[in-house]
Backbone:
DNA sequence: ATCCAGGAACTGT
DNA sequence: ACAGTTCATGGA
């Protein structure tokens, strides 16, 4: 095989140019492709979040690397990401290097997954002056919001997690994926894709209730699947509103999506830095822990504490989530 | 056993 | 508009 990869051609930079330089060729091996990362980025902080549940099926973290199966329009690719040097992520294609066009899709996907385009310096500046965030941003420096690319997946994850503890939410999520998602076996390990709206739209409420979803959640998810199937709801359409405020309002009109779910999805999927799921119990617990107090803060108290977080509420929330691991 | 969990819809006033 | 109730089950 003479698929000699020259490093210069494979440094993909979908964010600020200044981060492009500095890739050393020593560690490179043919077939590896590198994605340069900003200075304010820590791969292992992100991996810690990705590795928070043993029931996770949509990626696997092992040996300081993460693997994920990605379905593009015409390819199924299994990637493994690692971080041999701090200024880039290494991408390895385990089931064969796909065509260049697919590689570009994958690189964009990873850029979105790890939120590489965001300049965190203003957030850090704000956080260094905030009593609640100061320690957190130092301890977890370089953490990014781990995004959920697929809107249907983000909505299902949020709805499944409504009003139940996180461990049980993961159980429901795993059952949902293993029951209705496609899988791909590679070297004795199974990798999963999230179920498609088409698949879920064809189910009955009873089908989902068999996996211990409540009747309500089953209805919400099936209805949303149908909505997406018919093209009435899509990430593109929400982003095309060009206004997170309006995107949030559109989400709130959907049955099963309240303020918490709308904000959660805006944070994890649509990329709204102002999204703030202020009703979130996990957020409340994280704040309680940070303040070292006995009682969880009230919504009003959180409003006051977060008064200075303008334009960065989602990042503050995510760092607080991270503190709970 | 008891309480709570990364909420939201529904019902009655 | 607002407060109280129901959904429903697992985890600690």
Residues:
């Amino acid at each position: 095989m003479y698929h000699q990869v020259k490093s210069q051609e494979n440094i993909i930079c979908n964010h600020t140019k200044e981060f492009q330089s500095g890739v050393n060729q020593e560690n490179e091996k043919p077939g590896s492709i590198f994605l340069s990362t900003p200075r304010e980025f820590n791969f292992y902080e992100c991996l810690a979040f990705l590795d928070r549940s043993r029931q996770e099926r949509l990626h696997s973290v092992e040996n300081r690397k993460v693997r994920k199966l990605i379905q593009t329009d015409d390819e199924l690719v299994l990637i493994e990401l690692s971080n041999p040097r701090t200024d880039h992520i290494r991408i390895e294609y385990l089931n064969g290097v796909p065509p260049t066009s697919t590689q570009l899709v994958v690189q964009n996907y990873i850029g979105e997954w790890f939120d590489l385009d965001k300049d965190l310096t203003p957030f850090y500046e704000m956080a260094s002056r905030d009593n609640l965030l100061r320690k957190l941003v130092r301890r977890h420096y370089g953490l990014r919001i781990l995004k959920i690319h697929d809107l249907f997946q983000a909505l299902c994850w949020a709805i499944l997690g409504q009003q139940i503890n996180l461990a049980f939410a993961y159980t429901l999520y795993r059952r949902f994926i293993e029951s209705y998602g496609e899988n791909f076996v590679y070297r004795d390990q199974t990798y999963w894709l999230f179920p498609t709206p088409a698949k879920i739209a064809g189910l009955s409420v009873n089908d989902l209730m068999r996996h211990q979803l409540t009747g309500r959640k089953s209805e919400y998810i099936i209805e949303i699947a149908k909505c997406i199937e018919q093209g009435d709801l899509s990430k593109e359409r929400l982003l095309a509103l060009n206004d997170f405020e309006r995107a949030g309002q559109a989400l709130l009109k959907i049955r099963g999506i309240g303020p918490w779910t709308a904000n959660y999805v805006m944070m994890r999927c649509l990329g709204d830095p102002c999204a703030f799921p202020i009703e979130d119990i996990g957020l409340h617990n994280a704040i309680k822990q940070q303040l070292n107090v006995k009682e969880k803060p009230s919504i009003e108290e959180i409003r006051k504490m977060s008064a200075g977080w303008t334009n960065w509420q989602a990042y503050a929330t995510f760092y607080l989530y991270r503190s709970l691991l």
Remarks:
- The radius of gyration of chain A is 20 Å.
- The first helix of chain A runs from residue 7 to 10.
- Confidence is low (pLDDT under 50) at residues 1-28 of chain A.
- Residues 163-165, 167-168, 171, 212-217 of chain A lie near DNA strand C (CB under 10 Å from a C1').
